[in-house]
UniProtKB/TrEMBL annotation:
Keyword Transmembrane helix among UniProt keywords: yes
Domain of life: Bacteria
Protein name (database record): DUF2892 domain-containing protein
Transmembrane listed as a keyword: yes
Spans traversing the lipid bilayer: 12-34, 40-61
Keywords assigned by UniProt, alphabetized: Membrane, Transmembrane, Transmembrane helix
Amino acid sequence: MTENRDRNRFLVLQLMRISGAVLFVLGVMVMGGRLDWPPVLGYLLIVVGLFEALFLPTYLARHWRSPPE
């Protein structure tokens, strides 16, 4: 039971990191002029991507940590 839970949490953390990196790259592409989207959206994608890839997995891992026995 805990193996499934641990595996699922690991997958969630990895998918969060990957999706954050994808958002960051999309933001950089917008800022570089590769995508014809508003520049404000590019800045927003960069900020959200960095937050999702760097800070959110750490927060979730800390939140999911087992209490000391």
